[in-house]
Amino acid sequence: MSGGSKRLKNLQICRPFVYGNMAVPLKEDRSPDIPPDHTHSWTVFLKGVNGDDLSSFVKRVVFKLHETYPNSSRSIEEPPFEVTETGWGEFEISIRVYFVAEASEKNVVMYHHLKLHPYGPEAEQQKSDGATVTSMQYDEFVFNEPTESLFEILTKKSNAVLPAQKSMMVPFSIQSENEELDRLSDAHTKVQENIRRLTERIHVLEQEKAALQSL
Ligand code: SLL
After folding, report:
1. Three-state secondary structure of 140-205
2. 98 CA distance to ligand 1 centroid (A)?
């Protein structure tokens, strides 16, 4: 581990994920251990997109269930980050994500309304078919000025990255990562400088234009 608690200025890195739940009605042949008033089996989850493994930077996920559940706070320390239960009612689940220590990031929380029942035009049909109900959301972790360590973790070749980011990351396999980080940071500074200069230039031109118009 190369330390790297320094933050990379002017840099933002995102990782997509989905969270939500799936639910199916319990069948006649249900296990006798399931309380008789329970009607559904469900799973609440948080996972990467396209099989992306989040565990390189996610340390644990805490799902807070309704207090009718025993140990309603469920801490999951490794993937799959999910909880499967049975029950009878819908309720709000808080999903709190803790990042690895090297990231020096605050935990983040999402809220998901557990969905058991189909809705919409096909609801009745789906109900009689005993269809699986799914309710999920897309979101992104956004890391502003990540620590060097987090940046390393997120750009390591063995940690899956999205195709769009892959091409950008190719140089990392050739050059040492730190060198590449410096270059990236320099390039970013230059771009910022250019933007500033051009903005100034636009401002000057606008003033000239206004002056000409007032003649
Ligand atoms: C409702 N406000 O009334 C909600 C609460 C709670 C659902 C739903 C627990 C089962 C158990 C269960 O399904 N709770 O006791 O293990 O719809």
Report:
1. EEEEECCEHHHHHHHHCCCCCCCHHHHHHHCHHHHCCHHHHHHHHHHHHHHHHHHHHHHHHHHHHH
2. 26
Nearest residue (CA) to ligand 1, atom 10:
87
Q: What is the DSSP string of 37-61?
A: T--EEEEEEEEEGGG--GGGTEEEE
Q: Could you read off the pLDDT tens digit of each residue along the chain, which spans 215 residues?
A: 456 899 999 999 999 999 999 999 999 899 999 999 999 999 999 999 988 899 999 999 999 999 999 999 999 999 999 999 999 999 999 999 999 999 999 999 999 999 999 988 889 998 888 899 999 999 999 999 999 999 999 988 666 555 444 444 444 455 566 777 777 888 888 888 888 888 888 888 888 888 888 87
> Best of 42, 68, 72 to mutate for ligand 1, by most ligand atoms within 8 A of CB?
68
User: What residues are in contact with ligand 1 under a 6 Å CB criterion?
Assistant: 66, 68-69, 87-91
Which protein residue's CA is at the shortest distance from atom 14 of ligand 1? Answer: 89
